[in-house]
Amino acid sequence: MKLTLKSSWLAQRPYLIAALITLVLVLWMASGPSVAEQKSEIKAQIPSHDEKQITAQVKVETRLGQHIHKTIELYGRTEPDRITTLKAEIHGKIIQVLAKRGSKVAKGEIIAKIALNDLPAQLTRSQALLNQREVEYEGALKLNKQGYQGKVHLAQSYAALESVNAEIKRLELDIAHTIIKAPFTGILNTRYVEVGDYVASGDDIAMIADLDPLIVRAHATEQQISQLSVGQVAQVTLLNGAQAQGKLRYIASVGNDATNTFKIEVEIDNKKANLLAGLSSELTIDLARLSAIKISPALLALDEQGNIGVKSVKKSIVHFTPIEIIKSESDGIWLTGLGEQADIIVLGQGFVRAGDRVEAIFDKVDDKASNSTDKQAATVTAATQK
Questions:
Q1: pLDDT at position 143, please?
Q2: For the residues of 329-353, what is the DSSP string, one character each?
Q3: Mean pLDDT of the chain
Q4: Is the domain 87-209 a CATH 1.25.40.10 member?
């Protein structure tokens, strides 16, 4: 009966139950360690960052700079210095052909002859008429001085005389034009006529090309043209493997609207005529002399901004250095920006970033090995936890 009364009394006063539970929880929390003490204890149980840090090992080679020429490489084509197509200046039949296709002809050498036809007879008649016109003019001049003949008749006599002189000169030119001669020394590349062919004025007779000097024509970009000047030496490598040296003789002042490039010409001595026109060629023009380091293209890297460069080690810290490629060869590339000497990462550079602390393992190589092609590694070795 007493228990029932007590339960009923507590049920009517629930706030007393809540206060009792709150008091018990407060006493329980106060009896344990504080939050700060718990954090300190947890932090003490976790090893420090320095103890867990792993120092990457990278293979490093010391590369020394060498003085080389910065170059410009262009692709072009060999062409004759001069080329001309001889044409007939009068009509007639080809009666003689003296020069062979592919032969070397000297300036003034006869290539072919056209029939004279009646040109000599016309010239003889005009010369006889000239004598008559000279006598007539002299008589008119005397009569005019004596006052027996006027100026009109004198002028007519003089015009007739000059007309005959002009006709004689025309006939003499026509006779000279029956002989086709080479205008300059060169190669008779093509002959369009044979004996018996009939040609009219303007028909093609032969094509002559001057191959000494031989010209290599190429096109330079807007950035390259500012670095070129007339007289610079150029190395020429032809597609057939032949090599030659020439000088830059011409730089266009107006660029091509379609390609924004400028035409240049390099002339090559070709007195022996052993170099042909129409061959693809590569031009290498030396510019300023710079200190550069040679590496494998596999060692190039990009930073977060997309700049191309090389990763090196200075005082155990990785550094990214932007570079400029100045020359490319079959076994490597030459670049500037690293100074006279640099400790370049050659193994593991793909697994470290600028600012990382690394353990540099130097590879002792001689000068020849330092310029050999490097191979990029696929893995990097990490040191064990201290």
A1: 80
A2: ETTEEEEESS-SEEEEEEESGGG--
A3: 82
A4: no
Going by pLDDT thresholds of 50, 70 and 90, the confidence category of residue 233 is very high
Name which of 314, 382, 380 is nearest 346 in CA terms. Answer: 380
Closest CA to 371 of 310, 299, 295, 298: 295
Burial of 349 (0-12, 13-18, 19+ CB in 10 A): buried
Q: In this structure, are residues 63 and 82 in contact, taking their beta carbons and an 8 Å threshold?
A: no
Quote the tokens at residue 269: 């001595």
State how far Cα 217 lies from the chain centre: 11
Q: Which pLDDT score is estimated for 65?
A: 85
* pTM summary value: 0.61
Domain ranges of the chain: 2-45, 56-68+290-370, 73-81+211-288, 87-209
**pLDDT tens-digit map of 28-85:** 666 655 555 555 555 555 555 444 457 888 888 888 888 887 888 899 999 999 999 9
In the predicted model, what is the mean pLDDT of residues 301-321? 88
Q: Which amino acid, 153?
A: H
Domains 73-81+211-288 and 87-209 are alike in CATH topology: no
Q: Which residues share a beta bridge with 361?
A: 59
**Token duo for residue 152:** 């009109």
Instruction: Measure the CA–CA gap between 187 and 103, rounded to whole angstroms.
Output: 6
Average of pLDDT values for 141-151? 78
Q: How far apart are CA 154 and CA 140, in angstroms?
A: 5
What one-letter code names the amino acid at 78? T
Tokens 């139950």 sit on residue: 17
Radius of gyration of the chain (CA): 48
What pLDDT sits at residue 38? 54
State which fold the 56-68+290-370 domain adopts.
2.40.420
| Residue 36, φ and ψ in degrees, nearest 5 | -60, -40
The candidate with the shortest Cα–Cα distance to 342, out of 369, 319, 373, 376, is 319
> What would be the CATH architecture of the domain defined by 73-81+211-288?
Beta Barrel (2.40)
Is the pLDDT at 151 greater than 50, yes or no?
A: yes
